[in-house]
From TrEMBL:
One of its GO terms (molecular function) is ligase activity. Pfam families: 2_5_RNA_ligase2. The keyword Acetylation does not apply. InterPro entries: 2H_phosphoesterase_YjcG-like, Cyclic_Pdiesterase. Keywords: Ligase. This is 2'-5' RNA ligase family protein.
Amino acid sequence: MKNIINTYDSLNDYRLIVDLPASVKRKIADIKVEFDADYKGLVIPGGDPFVYLASFAQTESKEDSVVDILNKIALGFMPFKMHLKNFGHIESGEIFIEVEEQAALKMLIGQIKDNLSYVQDARFNPHPRITLAKRLLPFQVSKSWKVYERKSFSATYIANEMLLLKRMEGFSSWQILRRMEFQNMLISV
C-alpha cells in the first residue's frame, strides 16, 4: 500500500506599488493628519502613501513564475519622473493627490496586465493616484472638497522601482516580497 501525501498550495494576495521617497511621504503624512483632524475620514491604514498599480491572488507554487515575469517587465522599463500635483476627488467618497502625466504609469500597468492575464482576482488601477481618505460620507466629501480643490500640493521625484507586496493566506499584514528596479534593458518577456 502506497502512502499518498496531499500537499496544500496556499493562495496568497499580492499588490504591486510604486513607492514614494521619505520626504514626499512625510509631506503627505502631514496632510493626512490635518485631513483626519478636520473631516474624520477613513484614513488609509498603515499611513504609508504609495501609487497602487495592481493586485491579484496566486498560489504559492506559481509565485516564482509571477515574480520572474514582473522582474523582466521592470528590467525593461525606464525610470520615469513622477509629478504629484494638487488634489482630486471621486464621488464615491475619496479625496486623493493627483499624479500628473500618467502616460508612463499607464504603460507600466498595461504591460503588467498583458503579462499577468492568468492570475486570479486581478485588478489593475485605471486611475493611478495617492489616496488621502476614502469611504467618506457625502457631506464629508462636499465639505472637504470645497477646501481641497483650492489647496495646492506639488512633489516631483524619479520612480526607479516598483515593489511587489505579499500577504500570506491567513495573515493581515503585507510584506515586501521583492523590489524590482527599472533598468531600461532590452528584455523579452
